[in-house]
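Q: Hi! First time doing this. I have a protein sequence and I read that you can turn it into a structure. Is that right? Here it is:
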Amino acid sequence: MLKIDLHIHTMPTAWEESFEFSLEQLEQHVSEQRIDAIAITNHNTFDLEQYEEIREALAGKCAVFPGVEVSALKSHILIIDSEDNARRLKDSCEQLNAALRDDVSRSLENHELQSIFPWIGDAIVIPHYQKDPGISQESLAKLGQLVTAVETSSLGKARRLSKQGQIGHPAVCFTDYRFGVDEALIAGERYRPTGVFLTTDSVSFGAIKSGIKDGVRFSSDGSEDIEFAPGLTLVKGVNLILGRRSTGKSYTLKRVAALFEESDVYHITQGELVNEGLEDAFYNNLGQRFSGARRSYMSRLRPLMSEAKHNGNAAARSRAIRDYLKSLKSYAESSSQSDCYSRCALHHAVSLEKPKSTDTAELIDATKLLLKSSDNADLVEKHVGRERLCCLLKSLVERSTNEAKQEECIELSNKVIKRVRQSLKVSAVDVYPEPYLCEAFEKEAYSRRLSELLDLCWTPKLVADDGGAAFSDYSIKVSRCKFAKANDVKAVLGADASVQLGGITNKKSQEYIDRLISLQGDMDLSLGLFDIKVRMEDEKGAALSGGQRTECVFVGKLNEAYGKSVVLIDEPESSFDNPFLSKTIAGRIRELAKSSTVVVATHNQVLGFDLKPDKVFVARFDRDTGRYSMLSGSPHDRMLTAGEYGESTSDAMLEILEAGKVSYDNRRAYYGGLGQ
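A: Yes, that's right. Below is the predicted 3D structure, encoded as structure tokens:
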């Protein structure tokens, strides 16, 4: 097996931030990651002199191939040549620089690419795929057999594409790192994919090109497992990482996460459960989870508030009545001043009433649906008959046409009435006002009924209880009640600071509604009518304690993790008692591990044993050398190993989980003595 990393940057170009190349970082990368072959692939540039220096420095450590990352076909394409052909790559890159001199951001067309690199058929060609800027399927087809593999943005994505085998090319993932950006790589603060493996023992260019086409591997043992560090692989199932404090457990989890797309990983970080279990954070998160359900519940009131806003508040409704009465009085006082204008019938005419809406349009749509149905055409024909449906549709269309004509005639008539009445205003007699009192009474009645409804909604009431469906020992209960503070009303409405609602919660229902409908802006006023409170209770009906809240957070996160490729859990045991970990958590994690790769970092003996891990890792830190190491193996193996070094599985696990064999024997003696 060979490990290769064919996408390495060693000099700044116009396509990245400036950096100073560090040969030390590159040498460390090659050494620690046990890489057998690399390629120098700077953007649209190849520096032959620097390449020769790097090749000489790494002689005997790994093969170094000349390459370039070309902007072409609206993507980035790696073109890698053999060590003996570095000069022809240099010549082609000089032509490339000349082609891009006027516009360095330009992307080559396919014919330009093959003209500048006429020997491309002999090279390793790897375009970006599902990695920005990714090549399109159309452009990938244009390159055809020239493509050796495609490069993705994560090891997990490359692994998935290789399994699917739908793109017709192997998928790879390389570091794409700028060696020299900072010292973070040396400090162990960079978590990056480190290359792929080939089933060949030769580092010749031809062997590597053939090896890539034959199919890459993602672990040094050639298995389907995930290799996150040299010689360390994760299995599908439960992977347990044990270790004392500051031995690299959290670092390892981050390193694993970096191999996958963010959407593929669910990471429960250290301390996250405790922080989210704090009372304010817990109930804020719970409220956010139910925000969609709240909007759905309140949506039935939305049209009611829209109608109320259309009717206006109490002051507007009173003003409309006063204006009508004033117009009526003015008409009565001026009616004795009859003239030729006021004697016209249209002078006193009122607008024609619009026809009531019908369901004709809905029936037309329903009939069309029946006629178009193919799945149930036999039943439609049997019970109704297509001919009768066609007759019905014809009649409905005729009626709809007549209704539309009638509505149009009334609308035109009202326009004529309005225009004539405007022209007749030269009369000394005021125009007879449009009747309004019936409409006013309807608006007042609507306001009273809406306020009565709000009074009912302000009476505290339980509206939902899941009965422990989500959390077996605890129930989620949702109740409605009056808002306690004006700021709570503003918060649910999403109102800005300029909106003044002080004292609104002290108002009676009619005044309360008036304050809401007087607000300016595009807000869902129904959300401000009453509060929806979400709480959780234990089996005794009591509010949850801090520990119980943290338990709920943990169970909820495990539920959310279903469907993720990788689930990382960092020391979850804080604030939990051992019975909860054993009876609830261990079983849920095992269930989750049936479909995901689960990695748990812990030093808790209950989780350590009750999880029944499929693989165990023991993290170590040597204070004398300042180096980290990791033993690994099956919990059923006699020895856990790290390269050629091995240690008894029982001793290694007892040291972490039971504080050593002496402490374990003392407890065993104590428990044995209790039974005597």
